[in-house]
């Protein structure tokens, strides 16, 4: 086993791959982070306050969320990449393990994002679609952009994160699914989609009411997760796993209200796209010949940096830049312009030999790039054009020119401070076999940690084996727990037992909340609607709080009271109720979560009638409950 892994890792270390997929993965990961930070900011009082808006325990949470949002934005644009991913990794660990996010508001994907953030520390995420790549070019402005080759990375940077983050997760999840009756019946995707608390606003009944389709989907998911880790790297099977995985997680994103989990998983799939596809896409969208030729002053540092910047954002390569001193004489359309005048501005020629200069050149560049077309049109508007032209003139007339032969030595390239460069491109190139063996040992260690988790929760816990009956097995259990704690916190290795039989068995009643408005009329709180669906934006970790912790197969009165307090206090403040005197009604309806297929089960659950079972009253910002002693008996 060790030698097999070693040979594979050694081969992948030496195999070059385009950096495009890793750049896209970095952007998607950063976007998922940013949307979740915005979500946390919006619900910060609900999640982090002991009593929303009344007892504020963490007044600086908003400040740290803003800092985290800035870091996530850095990741998206690829600015100071290594610093950003280190900070992001720390933020995930701190927020997940030291706030209410862990205890009551588990998002279902937090540990996955922690594990993905760990691998980003060592991935070359700054090589494609990043401002860091531009910063590196701008540090040596007199090097022509054509001297920078297309970035390539080690193929191992693609395969290892997929193997551990996706492969481990899928295999562990499949172990748990074997113990769930509805999954064994092929209804693993069907059952959550028939429960009002779990569905999105999209009505997917046309698919849910097809028994054969649902069972095909259920068994396909189980087979996909079981075999993924063993075969995803096979070239002929990779596309199959890519398409099934995208379909699976896109379905989760659209049909269920746990969209952050679906988006986080989808973010990984650019790493599964075959390298040839990235090269084909690059050739497909790159212009065969430029549509605009721009001439610039080669002895002007500002002009060189401008050209490097424009070329960096010209992703379709529709613009070519030439040194005016050397190339302008080759174009007859520029013959009437003397060299001194030509060097005072940026000049451009389009395919019709139309000459542009100054601000008009920039406008043409933006228009010809395609995706920046709106910005070019904006600069043409009266008023904006005059202001931009005056600003351009002020900069162009005060620019500095230098003699490159004597002054270029003052420009030094930025040092590459990424861990990927230090490990893969310095140590790995100098000692490839030693490096491959170290990576193999790390991979084996990760594999052991995952096996420990899967055996502990997927087999021993499921089979109800008591290890405390013997001193040796008890010591082994304690060591296993210690390993689980470390791997969970820092690597995100945890059991992936989502929506199984122990979650839905006995899940036959749900709760909703209404309130009495100023006119004495009963209104539905913008939380759970008349159908029993959780309304947006109460999805993701807020849905998890209500559907997984507050309302369960065995409703605990103490916990449900805690969350009724938090929800009524938060939404009462949001909709303008006076918590000095406000009354809420607690509604209950019976539903069903069968392990066998039932036609139109979703609509049957949604159509079930509500019954008022109690009230919650706020008086002088103190809550009073009038609820049954045993909610499960209602």
TrEMBL record:
Q: Which GO terms describe its cellular component?
A: endomembrane system
The protein's matches in Pfam families, at most eight in alphabetical order, are given as: DCC1-like
A GO molecular function assigned to this protein is: protein-disulfide reductase activity
Question: Which keywords does this chain's UniProt record carry?
Answer: Membrane, Transmembrane, Transmembrane helix
Q: Does this entry carry the keyword Membrane?
A: yes
Subcellular localization, per the record? Endomembrane system
**Topology class, membrane:** Multi-pass membrane protein
Record-annotated HTTM-like domain positions: 14-277
Protein name per the record: Thiol-disulfide oxidoreductase DCC
Species source reads Crenothrix polyspora
């Amino acid at each position: 086993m060790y030698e097999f892994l070693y040979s594979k890792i050694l081969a992948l270390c030496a195999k070059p791959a385009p950096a495009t997929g890793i750049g896209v993965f970095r952007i998607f990961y950063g976007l998922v982070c940013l949307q979740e930070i915005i979500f946390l900011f919006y619900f910060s009082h609900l999640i982090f306050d002991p009593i929303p808006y009344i007892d504020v325990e963490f007044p600086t949470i908003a400040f740290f969320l803003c800092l985290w949002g800035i870091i996530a934005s850095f990741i998206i644009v690829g600015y100071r990449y290594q610093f950003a991913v280190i900070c992001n990794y720390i933020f995930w660990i701190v927020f997940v393990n030291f706030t209410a996010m862990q205890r009551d508001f588990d998002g279902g994907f937090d540990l996955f994002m922690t594990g993905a953030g760990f691998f980003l520390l060592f991935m070359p995420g700054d090589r494609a679609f990043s401002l860091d790549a531009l910063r590196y070019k701008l540090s040596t402005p007199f090097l022509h952009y054509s001297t920078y080759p297309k970035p390539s990375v080690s193929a191992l940077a693609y395969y290892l994160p997929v193997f551990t983050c996706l492969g481990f997760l899928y295999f562990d999840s499949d172990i748990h699914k074997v113990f769930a009756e509805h999954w064994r019946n092929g209804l693993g995707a069907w059952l959550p989609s028939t429960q009002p608390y779990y569905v999105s606003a999209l009505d997917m009944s046309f698919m849910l009411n097809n028994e054969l389709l649902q069972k095909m989907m259920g068994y396909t998911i189980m087979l996909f997760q079981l075999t993924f880790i063993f075969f995803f790297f096979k070239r002929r099977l990779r596309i199959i796993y890519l398409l099934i995985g995208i379909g699976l997680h896109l379905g989760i994103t659209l049909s269920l209200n746990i969209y952050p989990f679906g988006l986080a998983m989808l973010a990984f799939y650019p790493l599964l796209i075959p390298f040839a596809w990235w090269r084909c896409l690059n050739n497909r969208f790159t212009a065969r010949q430029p549509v605009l030729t721009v001439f610039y002053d080669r002895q002007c540092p500002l002009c060189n940096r401008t050209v490097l910047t424009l070329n960096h954002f010209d992703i379709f390569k529709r613009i070519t830049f030439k040194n005016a001193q050397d190339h302008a004489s080759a174009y007859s359309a520029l013959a009437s312009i003397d060299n001194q005048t030509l060097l005072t501005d940026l000049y451009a020629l389009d395919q019709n030999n139309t000459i542009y200069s100054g601000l008009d050149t920039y406008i043409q560049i933006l228009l010809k790039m395609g995706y920046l077309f709106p910005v070019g049109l904006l600069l043409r508007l009266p008023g904006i054009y005059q202001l931009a032209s005056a600003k351009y003139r002020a900069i162009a007339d005060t620019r500095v020119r230098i003699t490159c032969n004597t002054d270029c030595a003052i420009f030094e390239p930025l040092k590459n401070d990424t861990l990927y460069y230090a490990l893969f491109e310095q140590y790995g190139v100098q000692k490839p076999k030693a490096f491959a063996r170290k990576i193999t040992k790390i991979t084996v260690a990760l594999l052991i940690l995952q096996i420990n988790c899967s055996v502990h929760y997927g087999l021993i816990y499921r089979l109800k084996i008591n290890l405390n009956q013997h001193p040796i097995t008890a010591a082994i259990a304690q060591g296993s727990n210690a390993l689980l704690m470390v791997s969970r916190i820092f690597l995100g290795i945890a059991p992936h037992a989502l929506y199984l039989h122990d979650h839905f068995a006995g899940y036959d009643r749900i709760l909703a909340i209404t309130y009495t408005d100023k006119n004495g009329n009963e209104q539905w709180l913008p939380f759970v609607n008349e159908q029993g669906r959780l309304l947006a934006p109460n999805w993701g970790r807020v849905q998890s709080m209500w559907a997984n912790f507050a309302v369960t197969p065995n409703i605990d009165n103490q916990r449900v009271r805690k969350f009724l307090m938090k929800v009524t206090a938060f939404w009462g403040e949001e909709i303008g109720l006076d918590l000095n005197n406000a009354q809420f009604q607690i509604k209950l309806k019976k539903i069903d979560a069968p392990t066998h297929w039932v036609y139109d089960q979703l609509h049957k659950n949604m159509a079930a009638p509500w019954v008022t079972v109690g009230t919650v009253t706020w008086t002088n910002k103190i809550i009073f409950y009038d609820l049954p002693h045993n909610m499960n008996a209602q």
